Amino acid sequence: MSESDNQPILERLRPKRSRRLGLSGKLLLLTIPLVMIAEVLIYVPAIANFWSNRLNDRLAAANTAALVLDAAPSGMVPDSLARQILTSINARGVAIKMGQQRRLLASADLPASIDHDYDMRDMTAWSSIVNSLKMMTETGDHTMRVIGPSPGRAQFIEVVTDEKPLRRAMYRFSRNLLGMSLLLAVLTAALVYLALHFLFVRPMRRLTASLVGFHENPESVARIIVPSQRSDEIGVAERELADMQRDLVSMLHQKSRLAALGLAVSKINHDLRNLLASSQLLSDQLASVPDPRVQRFAPKLMRSLERAIAFCQSTLSYGKVQEPAPDRRMVAVEPVVAEVRETAGLSPDASITWIAAIERGLKIDADPDQLFRVLLNLVRNAAQAMESLSGSAGVRQIRIIGRREGAVAILEVSDTGPGVPAKVREHLFEAFRGAGRPGGSGLGLAIAAELVRAHDGDIQLVEGTLGATFRIVIPDRPVELQTFWNERASA
């Protein structure tokens, strides 16, 4: 094993993550802009509110100054005092309107024209946002007139002031808010990143590492992920991944054992086939013996040997998952059932009662050898299932029923045995997994199911019956009309 194979899986993943942006980087790049967008959405109304508050503060200071100026005797205020009052409120002039008369309470260096007018009496939130942003984007020494309500007898009060001091204050506020926003954005992004990293990114890396490690050695039990105790979707994903990996490991181990078994059977098949061929030569010589009993049993012996040789030959095909295609023709069912009984050793004096209820003249469009194998496997399974019953356990009986329903032939093989255990039914027709008795392999049902499906038929366990009942359904092949006329003409 090389040195790279001994490195942990996460270490081997690091070069890949360094060449491209991983989940952590994408999460960080996504978190910071989202937080900044939220800060921008906070900043816009904040600067508008700051602008409105400053203008309202100017109006409040102007109202106070108006009270002082209006209280002067005969409304006469020295110019020096008026300038001091205007300087204290950062204004160039203060005026009020009483009735139909506008009265200038104080002024100092009034400009020739006013650049902007802001009436705070009907100022909306949207207007505040637009006017505040507009003021921040302007340059130069502009003046503005701010109009607002007056608490006294006056209808409103006007303040003429410069925009530059307010613009500078807004810049300072923006810098402070921007700095605080950046700090909050970094802290929020860091907290969100760490929370999501530990809650989602690390578990995803763990899942990824488990998948990569399992892909490298899918037969190793040590590569199966150990699920955490989380109850959320990640916990469910971990548990499902662990179950899937365990199933795959079990399946791969089973496939390996099957491959080893297939190799062993292939080695045995050659010698066994030669031995059976020698036995077939001896049976040919027995056929020439004039003894009536020999003449009676010799054909059956030869037929059994021929079928055994054919079974040995098909063993290699089954190991390659290639059953030969069925040689279908209309086959009489009764002779096949009788041969199955003799081959299974169920003589009339046996402890198991044999009942064959076959519809008179019933024929099935099937391969006779493969049909024989299907029935023999089912009958042997039934006989072996009833061998475990005690002598007083009840009637031991195997029943074969055959009938035709239109273009479909139906056969049922039932017994009075203990039935099929519930835990076996899920994998009933799977090799080495559908064995319902100790020592069984489940190959008989697997072979029977494969042969029936090769005929486009179906085999299933009938529920709710005494013992076990298997139903075989084989449809007739569709016949093309031209083929039918050609066969009829040749006949």
UniProtKB/TrEMBL annotation:
<dbReference type="InterPro" id="IPR050980">
    <property type="entry name" value="2C_sensor_his_kinase"/>
</dbReference>
<feature type="transmembrane region" description="Helical">
    <location>
        <begin position="27"/>
        <end position="51"/>
    </location>
</feature>
<dbReference type="InterPro" id="IPR003594">
    <property type="entry name" value="HATPase_dom"/>
</dbReference>
<dbReference type="Pfam" id="PF02518">
    <property type="entry name" value="HATPase_c"/>
</dbReference>
<keyword id="KW-1133">Transmembrane helix</keyword>
<dbReference type="InterPro" id="IPR005467">
    <property type="entry name" value="His_kinase_dom"/>
</dbReference>
<keyword id="KW-0547">Nucleotide-binding</keyword>
<keyword id="KW-0812">Transmembrane</keyword>
<feature type="domain" description="Histidine kinase">
    <location>
        <begin position="267"/>
        <end position="478"/>
    </location>
</feature>
<keyword id="KW-0418">Kinase</keyword>
<protein>
    <recommendedName>
        <fullName>histidine kinase</fullName>
        <ecNumber>2.7.13.3</ecNumber>
    </recommendedName>
</protein>
<feature type="transmembrane region" description="Helical">
    <location>
        <begin position="177"/>
        <end position="200"/>
    </location>
</feature>
<keyword id="KW-0472">Membrane</keyword>
<dbReference type="InterPro" id="IPR004358">
    <property type="entry name" value="Sig_transdc_His_kin-like_C"/>
</dbReference>
<dbReference type="InterPro" id="IPR036890">
    <property type="entry name" value="HATPase_C_sf"/>
</dbReference>
<dbReference type="GO" id="GO:0016301">
    <property type="term" value="F:kinase activity"/>
</dbReference>
<keyword id="KW-0067">ATP-binding</keyword>
<keyword id="KW-0808">Transferase</keyword>
